[in-house]
Amino acid sequence: MSTPFSIRDPQSGAYSRAFFDEVVDREVERSRRHGSVLSVLSVVLANWSTFSASMSAASLGDALHTLANTLLANVRQTDYVFRWEEDEFVVLLVEANLDGLKTKVAHLAATFRPWREEGGPFPQKLRVRVGAAVLDPGLVFPAVLQTARAAARGTSGELPVLRV
Hints:
164 residues, alpha+beta, Alpha-Beta Plaits, five-stranded mixed beta sheet, 20% strand, globular
């Protein structure tokens, strides 16, 4: 079991990657037991290196908190937002089918569009990309996670919403 210090990412306030393993095992088992759908979003900050290079540590922390809070405001209380890597968040959507996932990706794209075009809440533009995948029965979760991450990074050659 994680300690309270490892559950949250100190920079963003989102759940930590270390806590992800505890949550995902439980949610995959629950999904299989109840026949419900589990989906994943990968949210990548495409120009993070140039964006972060021009900011102070405090401003960078504020930017990460703003992004995490924006994600949290746009998912349900039953969903989870994790800080995955320096430039990536992973969102676990409990009981979100493919249609719901497509709707969520479109909504997030609209939410983040001003950030890309006008800078949104920041003094400079931040390009946020979203990829997604659905865990279908019989598939292994790591493949679904990898598909969502590849879609967000644009390395899959597929549409942003993928069904593995």
